[in-house]
Amino acid sequence: MSAPDRIAPPPADLGLAELASALTGGTTSSVAAVTDALDRIEVSQPTLNAFRVVRRAAALRKAAEADARLAAGVRLPLLGVPVAVKDDTDVAGEPTAFGCGGEFPPATEDAESVRRLRAAGAVIVGKTNTCELGQLPFTSGAAFGHTRNPWDRTRTPGGSSGGSAAAVTAGMVPAALGSDGAGSVRIPAAWTNLVGIKPQRGRISTWPLPEAFHGLTVNGPLARTVADAALLLDVAAGAHEGDLHTPALIDARAAVGRDPGKLRIAVSLEIPFTATKTALDPEIAAAVHAMAGTLRGLGHTVTVADLHYGLLIGASFLPRSLAGISRVHRTMPGAVVDPRTTANARIGRLLDGPALFAARRLEPLLHRRIGGFFDDYDLVLAPTTATPAPHAEDIDGIGTSSTNALITGACPYTWPWNVLGWPSVNVPAGFTETGLPIGAQLMGTANTEPLLISVASQLESELRWDRHRPTPWW
């Protein structure tokens, strides 16, 4: 073997499981891995702008502690591995700005998801950028500027977990947590060539909130591979005693590489009802059909069969979303926000009453109605977004109605599964002719993450999206 073959890759170029294995095997150290991650963050921050909070001193202390534990024979799933979390998630000692401007006190306790990451040995290197209160499929705000897409500096990485997606795609961390209230994990995963899992509601605790945004928002992992996303999901999953939703435990990692059997898969390009004009980009439609062909080649029965969402699902989404924005806004009295956020919070206050109550009452009906589609199909394959990633500045300086038209036109597909609370997984589906990533989502009924993960794993073994990395410009 030649000398170059013996040189280990930089720690941040490894996947989550690979880096955990390298640390356990002693081929690298946590201090080296965390330093590498922090240095990459520092170099990229003026251009890529993925992070709101960087925890250099605290992370290096934890890395040194992890190395001592590794040397003593302690073994944990992520001991010494650097990861990032989104800045809607409390990390003790750090402010939680949630994309807003202003001064915020440091959190006194970790969120339950962060507590579980730490219990697994992970080192939290920072908190990633998100738009104000997670409202947009863009990661932009007056408080921090624009987070950029590693595949194209002029484009958004998506949102609202765009900082987490950018950090993973650019190789700063092997995986990161985001949150998804209308597609906020799946959309940035689609636009950055990542696997993004929106789990079953309650799979990863939202504590200190018993539920987030009236049950719409869940936490979920972003990673380059299905195995890494499943690993982070398993590590972060679990309930706090105060949670309103506590689904039975699953083993996501065991589903990776497992034969799901011959499935009945529906390909649905139907766009859920929107009040604004929407259309599916032909390149994205072609990519979804190409993925359907791959699934047929894997032995599945794949049928074009549109899932008709109906009008009631939108009637359930809007009050829960806007009332959620209003309630979070009220808990942040010092927040400096965009007028569009203020307008949404004002509308949310009006809906936070009988309209919200009625919206929540619709959910069992929607479960029965849409669940009936799954009498004939095991899962649905659909586009994750209707368009490739827009330019980052497209969201700037426009009014509320123009903003709604922009974000709905680009991202009309993901929000219904937040109303239902069911799992969905974005998988990379190739690239446009101009080199922008495309995503497709696998959608199941309650607690079907293992099924979706096993199918995503099958697709990855055929398509090998993990081999495609952007050329660094940051």
From TrEMBL:
SUPFAM superfamilies xref list:
Amidase signature (AS) enzymes
Record keywords, A-Z? Hydrolase
What GO MF annotations does this protein's record show?
A: amidase activity
Could you tell me which Gene3D superfamilies the record lists for this protein?
Answer: Amidase signature (AS) domain (3.90.1300.10)
Q: Which reaction does it catalyse?
A: a monocarboxylic acid amide + H2O = a monocarboxylate + NH4(+)
What sequence ranges are listed for the domain Amidase?
Answer: 33-452
The cross-references to Pfam families, in alphabetical order and at most eight, read:
Amidase
Q: What is its EC number?
A: 3.5.1.4
**Keyword Repeat recorded:** no
For whether the record's keyword set contains Hydrolase, the answer is yes
**UniProt family annotation:** Belongs to the amidase family.
Q: What is this protein called?
A: amidase
Species whose genome carries this gene: Nocardia coubleae
